[in-house]
Amino acid sequence: MLFLIALHFHNNQTSSISELVCNTLGMKCQVKANALSRIRHIFTQEIFTEQVIASHAISIPVTESLNGDMAGYLPIHIIFQLLKSRVFSRYKVPIKDWIYKQMCSSCLPLHPLLPLLIESYVNSIIVKGIKSDNVNQAISEKELLEVFDAPANRKDISGRQSPTIILSEKKDVGCQILVLYYLLLFEDTLLNNMKSI
Q1: Which residues pair with 66 in a beta bridge?
Q2: What is the domain partition of the chain in residue ranges?
Q3: H/E stretch holding 12
Q4: What is the pLDDT of residues 148-181, one digit of tens each?
Q5: How far apart are CA 80 and CA 104, in angstroms?
Q6: For the segment 105-123, what is each residue's pLDDT rounded down to a tens digit?
Q7: Cα 7 off chain centre by
Q8: 197, 126 in Cβ contact below 8 A?
Q9: How far apart, in Å, do the first and last CA atoms of the chain sit?
Q10: Is the pTM of this model over 0.70?
Q11: Of 125, 64, 57, 141, the residue nearest 93 (C-alpha)
Q12: What distance in Å separates the CA atoms of residue 178 and residue 181, rounded to the nearest whole number?
């Protein structure tokens, strides 16, 4: 939760901070913007710089069986916000493994933030940012193909047979839909940006 508050402070989203505080406390309260200015300075300059947030965010565990029925603030919210603001690219923090694990850990019905996360990720791979020439690494062909392997043949990222990767059918379909969406979006974004690459 502190990560999310720090993220909102970095993006100067005081209304989101107010909403988060109210939801956490379970009551309506007035949070004045001028009262947040000192706290904002402490959060953004001393405790949670963008680089600290980015480097720690990739160690946040993915949400197992992430689906559309889940509510509240989840790790995907933090990663999405950082991807959208290109913090991972700016500080050269690799995010590919986290994205891939979250896609593989998702099931039906899909969480509504997953397509937006994938769009931001694909854009961070192909489209260079204004402030940074660094781009994120794409998911490898081998990793993408593993999602469509029969469960008995499925292996983990290191290539070993892994019973923990064997997913339920509902989870497999969700993961496969996300990977297919990633592939189609990647190709479309690549074709639309050929002139600028």
Answers
A1: 106
A2: 1-48, 64-192
A3: none
A4: 886 655 555 556 555 444 445 556 899 999 999 9
A5: 16
A6: 999 999 999 999 999 999 9
A7: 13
A8: yes
A9: 37
A10: yes
A11: 57
A12: 5
